TrEMBL record:
UniProt KW keywords: Cell membrane, Lipoprotein, Membrane, Signal
Highest taxon of source: Bacteria
Membrane-topology descriptor: Lipid-anchor
Signal peptide: 1-25
Originating organism: Kineosporia corallincola
Protein name: BMP family ABC transporter substrate-binding protein
Length: 362
């Protein structure tokens, strides 16, 4: 597992289409060479013959596997929503399955291939154990879209898409810090499910970002074991509210709205885990931290539709360079959002090093 699940939640189709995206998945099928751009650098890969109807059955079918709740109204649902929205416009079919255990990932991928999918799309890198199926006969005529992480090896059969979670969370923390500074607050919260590498790293980067604005801030971090349990989410949020936090971050999972609802009642600000929900009215959100897998997948599907999604390459989404990931202050003044935008640009140029800022926490 990566330091964070690779995110890549729907939208901005026109903007994303302008971003040059490399691609995933080629197999034993004769393929043509393709040169694509990944974070500004040229990379060579291969486009499966006949893309997008790779298996030549006269229809295009996209198979989606997600390790999370595909009805969480956030990170995991965005991936399926992006596939459904794009497929509907193209007249394609989508077969989706959520809450896939990593131990079942390989068999789940094989099952998709047996159903004649042309593209296997993994919702997060937790399902990387499915990747060996890309070289098996059952999946010989499929392309593969895979969120990248440190434990996912690039192969000729898959397209990798990644971002830098440390940057995303540092920017989220910086935005939270600006809010805290305005409210003269020094207390913030962070709520996650399992205490795993990705969640602990996310919490540290979030704290580092806050302390860039409020150096004496205290960040209460709660790992309740299940990010999809609304009761546990509300319990965690209530404990933090009792401690006096002015803002909290429910990081991933189906309990996000339950936490936000309670925070709304208490007048505590809330950040989103991956999607733009500034237009949400019930519950409301104050900061959208946008690193949704659906946004990244939409760009990949555009290239897949055009027959240019190449396997054996990786697209690295860069904050401050690409349209995503990004942070959006809901109901912000132009000056307030400008501070976030400038912060992101400095990460894009390397002036701000997210990993170095996290390391300062000790």
């Amino acid at each position: 597992m990566k330091t964070f699940p690779v995110r890549l939640s729907v939208g901005a189709l026109a903007v994303l289409s302008a971003v040059s995206l490399t691609s995933c998945a080629s197999n034993d099928e004769t393929a043509e060479s393709a040169t694509t751009s990944a974070a500004g650098a040229a990379s060579e890969g291969t486009v499966p013959a006949g893309e997008p109807d790779i298996n030549g059955d006269g229809k295009v079918v996209v198979g989606v596997l997600s390790p999370g709740d595909i009805h969480d109204k956030g990170y995991y649902q965005s991936f399926v929503d992006a596939a459904d929205t794009f497929a509907k416009d193209q007249g394609w079919e989508v077969i989706s399955r959520g809450s896939v255990a990593p131990t079942d990932a390989l068999n789940a991928a094989r099952a998709l291939c047996q159903q004649g999918v042309d593209l296997v799309a993994l919702g997060a890198s937790e399902l990387s154990d499915a990747i060996p199926a890309s070289t098996e006969a059952v999946c010989a005529k499929t392309a593969w879209y895979v969120p990248s992480s440190e434990n996912v090896e690039q192969t000729p059969e898959i397209f990798l898409s990644s971002d830098n979670p440390a940057q995303d969370m540092l920017a989220a923390g910086y935005a939270a810090g600006l809010y805290m500074q305005e409210k003269n607050s020094t207390q913030a919260g962070f709520i996650a499910g399992p205490e795993a590498d990705y969640s602990t790293a996310a919490a540290r980067a979030y704290e580092a970002g806050i302390k860039l604005v409020v150096p004496d801030a205290t960040v209460s971090v709660t790992f309740n074991g299940d990010a999809n349990d609304p009761a546990k989410g509300r319990e965690s949020a209530q404990a933090q509210i009792s401690q006096g936090v002015s803002i909290t971050y429910p990081y991933l999972g189906g309990a996000t709205d339950a936490v936000a609802e309670l925070a709304n009642e208490a007048g505590v600000a809330v950040l989103t885990p991956g999607t733009d929900r500034c237009d949400s009215t019930s519950p409301t959100y104050d900061i959208s931290v946008i690193f949704s897998p659906g946004d990244y997948l939409t760009a990949g599907l555009e290239q897949f539709a055009a027959g240019t999604l190449a396997m054996g390459v990786e697209k690295v989404w860069q904050m401050g360079v690409d349209p995503f990931p990004t942070v959006k202050l809901c109901d912000a003044t132009a000056d307030e959002q400008a501070k976030i935008d400038e912060f992101e640009k400095k990460m894009g140029t390397g002036e701000i090093d997210a990993e170095a800022e996290v390391a300062k926490l000790g």
